[in-house]
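Researcher: Last one for today. Full complex below.
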Amino acid sequence: MAINVTVWNEYQHEKTDKKVQQVYPEGIHEAIREFLDEDGELNIQTATLDEPEHGLTQEVLESTDVLIWWGHMAHDAVEDDIVERIHDQVLRGMGLILLHSSHYSKIFKRLMGTTCSLRWREVGERERLWVVDPNHPITHGIPEYIDLPHEEMYGERFDIPEPEKILFLGWFEGGEVFRSGITYTRGNGKVFYFQPGHETYPQYKNPLIQKVITNAVHWAAPERKYPKYEAFHADNDVEWDDFDYLGDTPFPKFG
Amino acid sequence: MAINVTVWNEYQHEKTDKKVQQVYPEGIHEAIREFLDEDGELNIQTATLDEPEHGLTQEVLESTDVLIWWGHMAHDAVEDDIVERIHDQVLRGMGLILLHSSHYSKIFKRLMGTTCSLRWREVGERERLWVVDPNHPITHGIPEYIDLPHEEMYGERFDIPEPEKILFLGWFEGGEVFRSGITYTRGNGKVFYFQPGHETYPQYKNPLIQKVITNAVHWAAPERKYPKYEAFHADNDVEWDDFDYLGDTPFPKFG
Amino acid sequence: MAINVTVWNEYQHEKTDKKVQQVYPEGIHEAIREFLDEDGELNIQTATLDEPEHGLTQEVLESTDVLIWWGHMAHDAVEDDIVERIHDQVLRGMGLILLHSSHYSKIFKRLMGTTCSLRWREVGERERLWVVDPNHPITHGIPEYIDLPHEEMYGERFDIPEPEKILFLGWFEGGEVFRSGITYTRGNGKVFYFQPGHETYPQYKNPLIQKVITNAVHWAAPERKYPKYEAFHADNDVEWDDFDYLGDTPFPKFG
Amino acid sequence: MAINVTVWNEYQHEKTDKKVQQVYPEGIHEAIREFLDEDGELNIQTATLDEPEHGLTQEVLESTDVLIWWGHMAHDAVEDDIVERIHDQVLRGMGLILLHSSHYSKIFKRLMGTTCSLRWREVGERERLWVVDPNHPITHGIPEYIDLPHEEMYGERFDIPEPEKILFLGWFEGGEVFRSGITYTRGNGKVFYFQPGHETYPQYKNPLIQKVITNAVHWAAPERKYPKYEAFHADNDVEWDDFDYLGDTPFPKFG
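Model: Here's the assembly. Have a good evening.
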């Protein structure tokens, strides 16, 4: 079954910062699209901040099964009503994958209800990502750990609700640890936050990081989207669906 | 150690509905204050919607360890900036206890990130609250279950993030079940949602319900409030606190 | 990818009790095999208590991806070393689905570490199974609830470790509730306990119950089995896998 | 309310290894007793492997509210029936605190149902213990992290069931991370595993480590011990406790 993926990137650093241009000349979204494209089951489109409605019209979102999000310097430039639109879709079942600095995006904070603050340092230190749950669909095919020669440090305490599952724990050379790969369910939607991906390091060209994100797309894809859930008034006449698989009910009735 | 409790009630039904006046002539907040007052460790004040700033000024909240919330028909009348003020306090460590229809309050939805919708029916049916976790501070002294002869039905699916702990499961005569007593942590704050307490039934006069709420106040009280957590920039020169408990360090150093 | 399923049934009631024979003339295992057989991806075999090694030789288990277990009156007759053999396989990744009275099987208690006791009553009362998590692979295609006209009552408190996920909550006519569908991970193995299936009621002929079990087989199937995990001695010379995706590493090194 | 604490130590290394004798001349159990003794609410006794019944007679355990366990080289020498005796007490409500290499004790494996294996290395490297949950009773009074100049490395993957709460994450100089402080509930008993405490390093003389263990004793102490939980047969005549708090029930009855 085909999965419709929309890769959203704020796409600002790549336009102004030479170091980032070197790493991602076409933008982070294109780097992500490129490796996802190798998976024949995925239909991929991209969207960026500067497009009308940030490229995330109601139509685009309706047809999106999984939304991937990368944002950093322009979180505040994302319109509140677009955030609500995404929020509605997640609760209805759209999968959401948040990368790196997207921990501070409006949509992640909206879903978590906390500050999502953390400890950070940008000196290009080494990170080692340990797999804590090796038989989860997202960690399939990943070895005991992933080494990243250079990454921005994100450390505890990460102010988030307790994750449903911790899949990766990050070790940083400078002395910190981090819950680097975590899952949540919100409404009918599956949410995965994955820490690697500072814009000046080529993490999205690392085949293991690519594997994790591809796995996550399959995991987060919903069976279907549900209508928005509203309080449901169950009236007095409870209808008991008293069907009988054998054609009769020869068993004593209680009460 | 004394605990400062603020009991907040929207206090609308009691002013207009005779049936409610019969049950709670002084308002739900006064009924709650009354039984909490029997606990010598608690300093209790009340606040209501119609007071200036809903009775929840910055000063009141600063000195509040645990906030109890009852709201129903006037959720929308609660000002957004007061909700943010409460939210800040919860993340800093203030305990929050949400009763009955407060599942739909702005502050609960803000903390949960979901619709918090549910199934409901108001016919005065019987509820039985089963204790699922008997050795939790909130269920201490509670028998195997609590019988409520009449209660509004709240049923699954309750659209909430997976609770940290399910303490009570509710059984309703008409065929529904509900996660009736659940806990969360958000930031440094402890949150307890407890379903009983429709305004026309005297649940807050039931000594077992009173015991649960009193227990919850003690459980939710923070050791202290923390400053609001902001992203913390850890600089390059990691200071290792290399103290030595024995006066020397005779062990081989790694690396 | 084909999944090898072994359906294990203690197969005692069916040999001696006429009422059970009427419902399951070929045994519960054959009823389960029958509906699983409609799924083209599954290779199914059965095993029963009275076979040598209970039909669960090392060879059989090695080639089993998912083991389904139904036991009731003869839990004690299951040999301890076979239980250890199953336990090893679960930790290595074999999925395990435990049905109804198998909550009291040796293997479930071995994996849980608790008594797994519960409240029960056998009067053929009605059960309603509410879906709490509609977007989980195991609940796909299941409506808001499943009605069972007659079932043995299993009620709280169920003495189990807190489940990873509660998928179904059961409502019973006589006043009880139950965590009727729950998941765990133990080692690399996925575990699903599902309460319906007393031997005198035809639950395994109910298409919705069949759908849940079929879904659970797909969910529990491992990507692969891992070697048994032993404490791993990491020696002093940590080998840093300092590969470089771009052919060079132009970034400042930390420390 | 006084809490009865029993500190159990296998007490083998201290008798044979000079390095350990230097650090703990009276044994690890006496070092733990010493700092716990400063808490006026605690009544402390010790027990060791070489005593009759390992010092854990039925009488001792009956009167123990919280058992602290340190074992390493002699796990197998602990008698199975004593392990079952401890297990029964935990399920009935006795708190259990497992230190360091006790992750491999029979009682911990019995309660977890997994191998409890991990990665390890003994070179005296530095550990930093990060507090992940600052408003938990066990982390009260603990700063952002605890530095241990030298500790045995315990690293992921730690083969345990998903903890109820992760309170500490450990960072090790050599490149590993570890879930170093974790909680569980088993039956009515609270369980805390805390990783620091290799026998050649004086962790139990570190005031912060002492604070964590003292906090954990208070957290793990039960309100009371429950009878051992057995399957409970609820008979047909469900007794409804139809009491009425107001002297009458003027509300319409459902159904």
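Residues 236-255 of chain B have pLDDT under 50 and may be disordered. Residues 5 and 44 of chain B are 5 Å apart (CA to CA).
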